Amino acid sequence: MAVIRKTCDTCGQPIELRQLGPDKWRPYNPDGSRHHCAVNASEAARAAGVAAQSQAQTQSESKLRSSAGPQDRADRQMDAEPGAVPAAGAAAAPGGGTMKWVALGFLLVVGAFLLLPRVLNRDGNADTAVTIPEVPTMSAPPTFGSSGSGSGSAPAAATRTPKPRPTATARPDVVPAAEAPSACAAFTNQVWAQTMFDRDPRTYADLDPDRDGFACEELPYGAVPALWTDRIPAKAEQVQLISTIDGDTIVIRRKDGRTEHVRLVGIDTPETGKGTRPLECYGEEATDFTRQLLQQADGKTVWLEMDQEDRDRYDRLLRYVWYQHDEQIYMANDAIVRAGYAERYRDTPNRRYYQTFIDGQEFARGHGYGLWSACK
Known about the structure:
With 376 residues, the protein is α+β, with helices and mostly antiparallel strands. It has helices spanning 41-48, 50-67, 70-80, 99-119, 190-199, 283-294, 332-338, 354-367, 371-374; strands at residues 3-7, 14-21, 24-28, 129-130, 168-169, 237-246, 249-253, 259-264, 267-268, 301-305, 317-325, 328-331, 343-344.
């Protein structure tokens, strides 16, 4: 397995690009865990491996020259000097000038073997235009966050408008990689694509062309909409988002002008080191993630849904935080857990979405998202 060591252009940390197949690379941390920055591993590996590839090609040509028989050398001499006569004894050399034709035939066979899977679909039939099923999409990576409490009117059902899925071409090998149509073009983040793939691997098989279980690995992380509903709960209170304190705490303003701190119920993100609690692994990353996601809430508007408890011992509102973005409905609590920035909160009487959080945590743990691979 080929390994290229370099520095990640996103976070500046040392990484290893490991080759898994032809033009297939994946970034890893030096300790062997997966590196989760949005790294175009194949492009970086090609750039970093130009010198190594050139050297290997030179060595290969040198070996071919050294193994060539007398007739091959005579052939090259005649090519270089028109009218030249091969040296005596060259004609008697076994194998003669056929070696270059054998090598050429071998290269043609290997080339056909590598290109055949691209030309044929999985059933062995020639592809013309394979239509990929439509799925709901997001225009930008969704984010996490939460807001206040109370009552208010939620918007009417948000209709999910799927964007047209591209079709796979019969000759993807003749299209530059950066321009080639891809099933992943319908998604804006890898977590969303992976969720759909895990739900129905057969329908969404094109999201995992190398069949390694990871869908759309080139996409960045993001949030997944609330797949079990298409509307914000009717009793949720509409409020305005003011700021994000940490991964599971935000500040909101109610319609009467009161400002409240809201604790996202049912989940627990790592501590950021503020106050009396020490900094925990992935605390700062969870805070940034929640802040970025909630900034995408349309009009900085969020909705707060109460379960069994109204407030905690710090007088914070305990709520599920909903928001709308790009005609999709999100519950921030679930999105944060599913992306690997929080664990489900075990000791709580607020259990309306308890199984949802369990499923999201197992999904994130299974794929090594966020704290599940960064924190040991």
